[in-house]
Structure formats: structure tokens, C-alpha cells
Amino acid sequence: MRISIENFTKTFGDITVIKDMNLELESGEMLALLGPSGCGKSTTLFAVCGIHRMNGGRMLFGERDVTRVSSQNRNVGVVFQNYALYPHMNVYENIAFPLKVRKESKAVIDKKVQDIAALVHIGELLERRPAQLSGGQQQRVALARALVREPDILLLDEPLANLDAKLRLEMRSEIRRIQLQTGITAILVTHDQVEAMSMCDRIAIMNKGKIVQLSTPNQMYENPASDFVAGFLGNPPIAFLDGIATDGGLKLADSEVTLPVPAGISMPGHGTNMRFGIRPEFFQPDNGLKVTGKISFVETQGREELYDVTLENGAVLRSIQSHGGGFKLGDEVSWGIAEDKILAFGPDGNRL
């Protein structure tokens, strides 16, 4: 099902949360709405499912205008952060509930429940109550209940927030498997960039009620439109070096060090504030553009080690390296930046 949001505006009293947003989802696509708290991503999700009425614009499901259609009549499946299962019903009854509301026959209900339970791998749990399930099992039940009604679109509102790290990893791949297998159009709301990048075909990063960039995970990671986007994607996060533009490059703030301008970057005028962004994988001992600093933080992550290197002016660069490098806290190092991987941003934060 193709979804079109045209000039969407949402207000709460005198406050305009979203103004003139435009967004299209292709049929069968999974899209992430990613951004900090308060950016408008959940408001957008609730408008899609009909909980929030639009104050301006329109919404199409395929060719059908659903702008004024109630949530009950939109055929949308929603999975919430807290699962919202009925505690007095067993798993079978929870999954079957939307079908009973539709007054489908007992035989049809039974077949659909059994089929969807097999799809999400909970066939052996149908007689249990929610209190007898783990968080991951409850999430699978909530997903099954949302899918059993064969919705036009699946909405996922922070679905993994209450799970531990291992279960989040498992459920990321499971939700994506199910979405691909069913071919359903889906929207994932999350503040976790790892979830967005690993689960979705495209990401819409939101800030202050606006979509600031919309592209595939790889395109967004490699070509962020602004320092906000660059800082939101990447784990460990990107490091920024602030300074002023000179004829020779970027003169670091409170330092005599000047870094050369990578090829293809159009520098602002002399004396203009700007910044370079360097991702941890591109700050390594063997790279050519050397900068000197002291290791101020070391974090062992099993196969890898994360280092913070504090430069003379107090700026910090990060480096992620294979375990066993032999570097330790307090070491003075001269490591290199991959010059062709530097991201440059102007005073407005936009990419140069």
C-alpha cells in the first residue's frame, strides 16, 4: 500500500508541532521516523493511524483519501512500546480479538491465528497469559495481533525500547524478516539510529517538526546533509573539530593547527566559522593526515577498542580499532585522519 502525506500540519492549541510536511512511502517499504524526543515523529505516526486528526493537509492510502477517516476504519496495525496486551486473555485470545470484533467465523479466526503465530514463532505459547511471557514473547504477540487483521500499513512505535540488548538485536531481525515476508508497508518510530539503519529501507530524520533528510541508511551515513544528521547517525558517534576557514584550510579553534581542505569542498570565506566531522573508523594510526593528542578514554568492546584522543586545544577525536593495539590511557599518540573522508559543515550546520 502506497502512503502519501501532503502538507501535513498539526497543532495543539496555539502550538504548531508540524507544519506542511510531505512524505511518501512506496508499497512494501519500511521507513524509519528517526529523531530526538519532541521532534514530531510520534505525532506523525498517530496522524497516520488516525489517533490525531490533521489540522491541515491530506493523507492517502493508495488512491483513498483517509484524512477524515476514523482510526477504526483505516485498517492500520499498531504495535506500541508497552505492547498493550489484554492481561485477562491468553495469547490466542489476544491475537484473535480484532478478528472477533470484525465478526469473522470461528474457523477463519482459528486458521488466521495459527498462521500468524507460526510466522512470528509463538505457536507453542497460545495458551499462556501475557504475565507468563518474556518481554520478547510479548512483543511477538503484539506484532501478531497487529498483523492478523491484514492491515494496509503496520505502525511500530518504539517497539523495542523495553527489551534488553540481546532481545533488541533478535527482534530487530525478526520484525524485518516478517515485514519482508508479508510485504506490508511499515513505519518505525525510534530514537535509536541502530534500529533505523538495520531495519529500514529509508530513514526520515526529523528535527523540530520537520524532515531534515530522507534517504537510505547508507546514503545518509556517507552523505549527511548537515552536522545534525551526521551527529545522529553512527555508533560510536562522529567527532567534530571547530575552527575558522583560512586560505590553507580549517584552523582549529584555540590552536595553531590547520587542517587542509579535502578535494571537492567549497570553502566559505576567510574567517568564517566552520567545522570538520571525522568518524571513528577514519581516525587511525596508519592514516596520513597526522594530528597529535593524548588518549583520554579507552573502552574495550570485545573485538574492538574505542579510544578518545584529546587534542592540545581540548577537542576530542574518536577512534575505533581492532582489539590488541597496545595503546593505553594517557599515551601520547600521533594518529591520522583519512582526508578524503572528512565531512565539512558551514556556520549554519549545512554540509559544504
Note the main attributes of this structure:
352 residues, alpha+beta, 20 strands, 24% helix
Describe the structure in your own words.
The chain is globular. The strands form 4 sheets. The chain has a 6-stranded mixed beta sheet, sandwiched between helices. A 5-stranded antiparallel beta sheet has the order 13-12-11-14-20. 24% of the residues lie in helices and 33% in strands. It is an alpha+beta fold and 352 residues long. The model has no long low-confidence stretch (mean pLDDT 94).
Low-confidence stretches: none
Report the strand count.
20
**N-to-C order of helices and strands:** EEEHEEEHHHEHEHEEHHEEEEEEEEEE
Rounded average pLDDT:
94
Helix content: 10-25%
- Main sheet characteristics: 6 strands, mixed
Oligomer classification: single chain
User: Looking across the biggest beta sheet, what order are the strands in?
Assistant: 6-7-8-3-9-10
Cα radius of gyration in angstroms: 24 Å
Alpha-carbon distance between the termini?
37 Å
User: Which structural class do you get from the secondary structure elements?
Assistant: alpha+beta
Helical stretch tally? 8
Q: How big a fraction of the residues is strand? A: 25-35%
Shape estimate: globular
How would you summarize what this structure contains?
With 352 residues, the chain is α+β, with helices and mostly antiparallel strands. It has eight helices and 20 strands. The radius of gyration is 24 Å and the shape is globular.
